[in-house]
């Protein structure tokens, strides 16, 4: 693969959507190669259908292992249809969430085991890992407060129904992943004002993509 694979991660309410909305156009304007923006779960037709199933707030009876398997299945299809072809073509791929999310949310949040979920996703991805991960960090209480404050402006999905203790476990798992993978995962303090979060994020991206950068 000749492209660059960059993922964005963070607990609910970290502001990933807002940051990506600002950062991606700014990044695309300075890259010498094409940029592909995508998301998980989703990113391809079959993957988006699985996304609807996973996030449907009416599916409260979904078993945690079923959820983890569905995420991995969606990811596999997305990888085959979109991510790998883009990387093979030398493009920069920006993906909103990837395997780290499953480890944090299903492995730790649902309590089914971080190692088990990592192994499941290693099978689904054939070991593909991002070159760089931007992790936007906020305490669970801050993230949930943001979600509740903007409830009318955002879609209410099944994960939004979870307790603060669930989101605390998710954040703890993310911090553990960041500590174990400091070369890949770069942590941004997402409790800051949005302008500063975006500036910090762009600085990380520009430094990593220096060989692809043009003024």
TrEMBL record:
<comment type="similarity">
    <text>Belongs to the thymidylate kinase family.</text>
</comment>
<dbReference type="Pfam" id="PF02223">
    <property type="entry name" value="Thymidylate_kin"/>
</dbReference>
<keyword id="KW-0545">Nucleotide biosynthesis</keyword>
<dbReference type="InterPro" id="IPR039430">
    <property type="entry name" value="Thymidylate_kin-like_dom"/>
</dbReference>
<dbReference type="GO" id="GO:0006235">
    <property type="term" value="P:dTTP biosynthetic process"/>
</dbReference>
<dbReference type="GO" id="GO:0006227">
    <property type="term" value="P:dUDP biosynthetic process"/>
</dbReference>
<keyword id="KW-0547">Nucleotide-binding</keyword>
<dbReference type="InterPro" id="IPR018094">
    <property type="entry name" value="Thymidylate_kinase"/>
</dbReference>
<feature type="domain" description="Thymidylate kinase-like">
    <location>
        <begin position="8"/>
        <end position="198"/>
    </location>
</feature>
<keyword id="KW-0808">Transferase</keyword>
<dbReference type="GO" id="GO:0005524">
    <property type="term" value="F:ATP binding"/>
</dbReference>
<dbReference type="GO" id="GO:0006233">
    <property type="term" value="P:dTDP biosynthetic process"/>
</dbReference>
<protein>
    <recommendedName>
        <fullName>Thymidylate kinase</fullName>
        <ecNumber>2.7.4.9</ecNumber>
    </recommendedName>
</protein>
<keyword id="KW-0418">Kinase</keyword>
<comment type="function">
    <text>Phosphorylation of dTMP to form dTDP in both de novo and salvage pathways of dTTP synthesis.</text>
</comment>
<dbReference type="GO" id="GO:0005829">
    <property type="term" value="C:cytosol"/>
</dbReference>
<dbReference type="InterPro" id="IPR027417">
    <property type="entry name" value="P-loop_NTPase"/>
</dbReference>
<dbReference type="GO" id="GO:0004798">
    <property type="term" value="F:dTMP kinase activity"/>
</dbReference>
<dbReference type="InterPro" id="IPR018095">
    <property type="entry name" value="Thymidylate_kin_CS"/>
</dbReference>
<keyword id="KW-0067">ATP-binding</keyword>
């Amino acid at each position: 693969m000749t492209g660059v694979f960059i993922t964005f991660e963070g607990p609910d309410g970290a502001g990933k959507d807002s940051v990506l909305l600002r950062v991606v156009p700014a990044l695309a304007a300075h890259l010498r190669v094409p940029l592909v923006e995508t998301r998980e779960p989703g990113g391809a037709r079959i993957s988006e259908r699985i996304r609807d199933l996973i996030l449907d707030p009416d599916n409260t009876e979904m078993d945690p292992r079923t959820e983890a398997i569905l995420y991995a299945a969606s990811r596999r299809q997305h990888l085959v249809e979109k991510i790998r072809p883009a990387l093979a073509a030398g493009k920069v791929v920006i993906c909103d969430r990837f395997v780290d999310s499953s480890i944090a949310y299903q492995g730790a949040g649902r309590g089914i085991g971080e190692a088990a979920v990592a192994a499941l996703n290693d099978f689904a991805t054939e070991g593909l890992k991002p070159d760089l991960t931007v992790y936007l960090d906020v305490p669970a209480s801050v993230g949930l407060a943001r979600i509740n404050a903007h409830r009318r402006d955002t879609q209410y999905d099944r994960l939004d129904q979870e307790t603060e203790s669930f989101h605390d476990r998710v954040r703890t798992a993310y911090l553990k992943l960041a500590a174990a993978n400091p070369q890949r995962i770069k942590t941004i303090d997402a409790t800051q004002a949005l302008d500063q979060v975006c500036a910090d994020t762009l600085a990380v991206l520009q430094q990593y993509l220096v060989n692809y950068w043009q003024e």
